[in-house]
């Protein structure tokens, strides 16, 4: 679906601009934690945005860039766009987290707020890009975005080759992150002598979504997202419908072994647990993977957990941990 070489090309392309993030081990829970909240901009989304924008042709950059974002992808696009002197317009929900909106504005982008949820903002952004002949930067439905997100798995496997036979627990929204990780760990896309390229991997890949906005879960389980509700959730970065025909849909079906959901109270507990146990501030979208372990909805261990970001509204975080 995506050429294997794209993943290692992405790692080389974005290396000068990203922060390799910590991988720690919780012996009591038998889990490894990949802390993408330490990434520049506070989220893994920077990886995909950098890879996509740095691979654009000059004429695509001059047309201006358009995207939709709940906040993290927009910050990644803004940072990457600054490197190539591109103008950026971001479509966002008027319900988006205020701190994330302010972070995007502070990076010099034009934000257009759309009533209702993320799905409507994405639809409006796609139409705007077409009508204005601008370059659309999808948060997930793009091979170069997916390749950039997959560099997380390359980092983990380089640090710990044994992860090729573990369970991986990954947050799911539109599916860009889990598709990239799935391609890397299921296709053994890594140049490492400790991995046997000729043998099938024993790795298990589990996705996690909030119950309040479980669109990819529905697609995976029943084949469509008809009738799925898009309710408010602490995991705001995972909310919203998946673009019809997204490349992530067949990739998720190919690589993912299961998708589970967690409740808002379970996400809240995971945010508090991460702070109290590890002194790490994570947002709701990251906390879903930890919630899957704490609730024992996923018990296959040892496991690698992707903690995807830390951009949580201060007042919300203080209320949860205070």
What does this structure look like?
- By secondary structure, this protein is α/β, with parallel strands linked by helices.
- The chain folds into two domains: 5-43 and 142-321, 3-Layer(aba) Sandwich (Rossmann fold), CATH 3.40.50; 47-136, Rossmann fold, CATH 3.40.50.1100.
- The protein contains 13 helices and ten strands.
- It has helices at residues 5-14, 45-54, 58-62, 72-84, 98-105, 118-131, 143-159, 176-187, 215-222, 248-255, 264-278, 284-294, 314-321; strands at 23-26, 31-35, 65-68, 88-93, 110-114, 135-136, 167-171, 204-210, 258-262, 303-307.
- The longest helix has 17 residues, at 143-159.
- The N and C termini lie far apart (46 Å).
**Largest β sheet strand count, sense and barrel closure:** 6 strands, mixed
Count the E strands.
Answer: 10
CATH architecture annotation name of the largest domain? 3-Layer(aba) Sandwich
**How many structural domains can be distinguished in the coordinates?**
2
CATH class bucket of the largest domain: Alpha Beta
Morphology: globular
Which range does the strand content fall in? 5-15%
**Mean residue pLDDT:** 94
The rounded distance between the terminal residues' Cα atoms is 46 Å
Describe this structure in a few short sentences.
This protein is an alpha/beta fold and 322 residues long.
Overview features:
322 residues, alpha/beta, Rossmann fold, 2 domains, 6-stranded mixed beta sheet
Secondary-structure blueprint:
Layout: H1 5-14, E1 23-26, E2 31-35, H2 45-54, H3 58-62, E3 65-68, H4 72-84, E4 88-93, H5 98-105, E5 110-114, H6 118-131, E6 135-136, H7 143-159, E7 167-171, H8 176-187, E8 204-210, H9 215-222, H10 248-255, E9 258-262, H11 264-278, H12 284-294, E10 303-307, H13 314-321
Parallel strand pairs: 2-10, 3-4, 3-6, 4-5, 7-8, 7-10, 8-9
Antiparallel strand pairs: 1-2
